[in-house]
Design brief:
Largest sheet: 5 strands, antiparallel
Helix content: 25-40%
Order of helices and strands: EHHHEEHEE
Number of helices: 4
Shape: elongated
Distance between the termini: 36 Å
Radius of gyration: 18 Å
Strand content: 25-35%
Number of strands: 5
């Protein structure tokens, strides 16, 4: 095993938190997305605010923001990152797919890709939790990083699948 190429592996081949102490502070952003496939009736009830647990999108939005702020507590090798901004947006793709998108920003020595991915994951799971009584067949999928800016590796933009 070539441990020199893996930044999260020490010289003994064990996991470690990467040393970022010598890196410069730069503006860093990340946008991630997840999709939730559901029954048409479920989407309609979310739209109309007729889910017994309350306003699904409002609760999921707060859950996603909270998750972004707690990422380092959930992902073992993540550095705690003071966020400058975290925003969750929802879009519909037809009558059966809810898209969750998170945009996270910081000025720091490490990026916020994991914070954006954690935000969409938890927001999506919150939608599932709030709607599971009416639709246990929902599927959370396609969670991915859409873009990131800043840092040594530069910018990244996902090429959309065709």
């Amino acid at each position: 095993m070539n441990v020199e190429k893996l930044s999260h592996i020490n010289e003994q081949g064990r996991a470690r938190m990467v040393d970022v102490s010598g890196k410069p502070v730069t503006r860093r952003t990340a946008v991630a997305r997840s999709r939730i496939r559901m029954k048409r009736e479920t989407m309609e009830r979310i739209r109309q605010g007729r889910v017994s647990k309350g306003d699904v999108l409002a609760v999921a939005q707060v859950a996603g923001i909270m998750a972004a702020k707690k990422t380092a507590d959930l992902i073992p090798m993540c550095h705690p990152v003071p966020l400058k901004s975290a925003d969750i947006r929802f879009y519909e793709e037809g009558d059966e797919v809810l898209v969750v998108e998170a945009e996270v920003k910081t000025d720091n020595v490490t990026g916020v890709e994991m914070e954006a991915l954690t935000a969409v994951s938890v927001a999506s799971l919150t939608v599932y939790d709030m709607c599971k009584a009416i639709d246990r067949e929902m599927v959370v999928s396609d969670t991915c990083l859409l873009s990131k800016t800043g840092g040594k590796s530069g910018d990244f933009v996902r090429r959309e699948e065709k």
